[in-house]
Amino acid sequence: MNEVVKVGSFGERLRREREMRGISLDEIVATTKIGRRLLLALEEEQFDLLPGGIFNKSYVRAYAKCVGIDEDEAVAEYLQAAHEAPPDTRVIAQQHASIHSNRPVQPSGFPLVPVLILLAVVAGGIGGWKLYRDRQVERQKRQASSPADTSPASPVTALPSANSSESAGSRPTATQSSQPSPASGTVQAESPAPKSNRAPSETATARPTSPESAAANTSAAAPFEVTVRPKDAAWVSIKSDGQYVVRGIIKPPDVRTIHATNQVVFFTGNAGAVEIAFNGKSVPVAGGPNDEQVLVFDSRGLMPKTASKTGTQ
Q1: Are residues 191 and 281 both part of a single domain?
Q2: Number of domains making up the chain
Q3: Nearest residue to 228 (alpha-carbon basis) of 237, 218, 220
Q4: Domain of 12: which CATH number?
């Protein structure tokens, strides 16, 4: 029975297996959530109409599982028909382990995330210390300028002597006439002087705080997250910082939250059945049921379509 199945090309075998079991393409579409156009491309061996890479092999596995044939054998026949190199078994094992653990695979090498967090903490500490030092300097300048506010009280103390001399009936001498009287306005002219002396110190101490605090706020970029919430069964593939973390069919109420620092690549074969959120904010997904859609996110949000195509390659 198996020797009869293997006769013919890769696409003919898929179609023959499906027809022998009485399964229609619409049933496979409903089960795998892969578009009908992509399934026809597999059967007709029009591989240039497929997205390419890991997506093509995932489609072959989903098709083979739905029809009931061996998945690894179907993938091997596809690679031979498409003239592609066989996959690395270590990469496949790593991807399967990340999918079953439901956690992103930590990349080997230099620990970039802890270093970025440490730099952010150090920059925040330096900015806070500079802000505290500037406030201490401002407080000391205010305390140093406060005794000057009481200096205008000295001319006022000389007023009772002038009043007492007038009540005694003595004539004012030359020295008495040269002293300021309450009506002369000399006290009013001298009182605003401490205010003008205090204003430059306040303005001078308030200026250095703004550029340093702004530099502390822009020292490091924060990580981000992308949340995928399915409204119906949908086939998805998600890559976080270059590693695949989700690949297969997700159904409600299964909600996936992907954490990353550089880039998240999201692909689905049923765009009308998923909802996407970036850092808790909803992101519209174009397309209807059984439509493919590719979205690429970085720390600033959803990237344009041109950048999305570059990120998926």
Answers
A1: no
A2: 3
A3: 237
A4: 1.10.260.40
pLDDT at 308: 52
pLDDT at 117 over 80: yes
Hey, how many other C-beta atoms are within 10 angstroms of the C-beta on 24?
A: 10
For 177-194, b where at least 16 C-beta lie within 10 A, e where not — what string?
A: eeeeeeeeeebeeeeeeb
Structure-block tokens of residue 264? 């998240």
Interior CA angle at 125 toward 123 and 130, to 5°?
95
Instruction: Give 161-205 as a DSSP string.
Output: HHHHHHHTTPPP-HHHHHSPPGGG-HHHHHTTHHHHHHHHHHHHH
Is 27 in the same domain as 79? yes
**CA pair distance 280, 291, nearest whole angstrom:** 24
Q: Among candidates 236, 243, 240, 285, which has minimal Cα distance to 51?
A: 236
Q: What tokens does 2 get?
A: 């198996």
Bigger pLDDT: 205 vs 143: 143
